[in-house]
Amino acid sequence: MRMVFKALLLGLLFGLVAKETLAAACPAVLDFTQRALNSTDEVNLCESFHGKVLLVVNTASQCGFTGQFEQLEQLHNQFKDRGFSVVGFPSNDFNQDRGSEERTAKVCYLDFGVTFPMMARSSVKGQQANSVFDEIAKQSGVTPKWNFYKYLIDKNGSVIGVFSSGISPTDSKITQMIEQTL
Fold first, then answer.
1. Cα–Cα separations (whole angstroms), residue 148 to 9, 62, 89, 152
2. Is residue 19 assigned to a domain?
3. Catalytic sites, residue numbers
4. Residue 3 falls within a domain, yes or no?
5. What is the 3-state secondary structure (H, E, C) of the chain?
6. Range of the domain at 168
7. What are phi and psi of 154, to 5 degrees?
8. At what angle do helices 172-181 and 68-79 cross, to 10 degrees?
9. Domain holding 33: CATH number?
10. Pairing with 43, which of 26, 32, 58, 177 sits 20 to 30 Å away (CA)?
11. CA neighbours within 13 Å on the CB side: how many for 101?
12. Residue 171 falls inside a structural domain
C-alpha cells in the first residue's frame, strides 16, 4: 500500500513540475487562454501552439480582404504537418465584422471552409486589445492598421514578420519566411 501511495505521490509531483516547467517556458505571446469562435470552449494557447510557427491574423467577415480566408486556409494546409498554424482573431475594430459571432463563424467555417483555429471576436488595437495582440504590438511595434494584418511568430514566440492587409497570405515573402523558420 505504501508503494502505491509513493508511486501516486511521485506521479503527482512529476505532473506538477511538468506543468510548471511548461508555464515557465511559455512565450509571452502564448501565455493566455482565449475563447474559441462562437463557442464556450477555451483554448490554452501555450498548450495548443507552443513550439509552432504561427501566422496570427486579425480577420473580419465583411471586409474587402475577407477573400484572404481562402489563401490563409491554403497556407495552413500547406505547412500544418510541419509545425505551423494560422490562428485567426476576428475583430470589429474597423467596423467590418458586425453582427453576431454566429454570423462570423458561418462566414469562416461554411462560406470559406476555414479549418485553422479561430478565436472569439475581440479588439486587436488600443486600450481594449486582447492580450495576444497587446504582446504582438509590444514586440513588433506595429498594431493592425486594418483587417487581415498578418504577424509571423517563430517557434520561440518572437514576432519575426509583419505583413499588411494588401499582402496575400500566399505571397512568396511570407511563404519563404515560413519555410526558413520551420
1. 49, 12, 9, 13
2. no
3. 63
4. no
5. CHHHHHHHHHHHHHHHHHHHHHHHHCCHHHCCEEEECCCCCEEEHHHHHCCCEEEEEEECCCCCCCCHHHHHHHHHHHHHHHCEEEEEEECCCCCCCCCCHHHHHHHHHHHCCCCCCEECCCECCCCCECHHHHHHHHHHCCCCCCCCCEEEECCCCCEEEEECCCCCCCCHHHHHHHHHHC
6. 27-181
7. -80, 180
8. 20
9. 3.40.30.10
10. 177
11. 14
12. yes
Is 4 inside a domain boundary?
A: no
176 burial (CB, 10 Å; 0-12 / 13-18 / 19+) is exposed
pLDDT tens for the chain, residues 1 to 182: 555 445 444 454 444 444 444 445 899 999 999 999 999 999 999 999 999 999 999 999 999 999 999 999 999 999 999 999 999 999 999 999 988 999 999 999 999 999 999 999 999 999 999 999 999 999 999 999 999 999 999 999 999 999 999 999 999 999 999 999 99
| Joined grid coordinates for residue 148 | 487581415
Distance CA 163, CA 13 (A): 44
Total structural domains within the chain:
1
**Grid coordinates belonging to 136:** 504582438
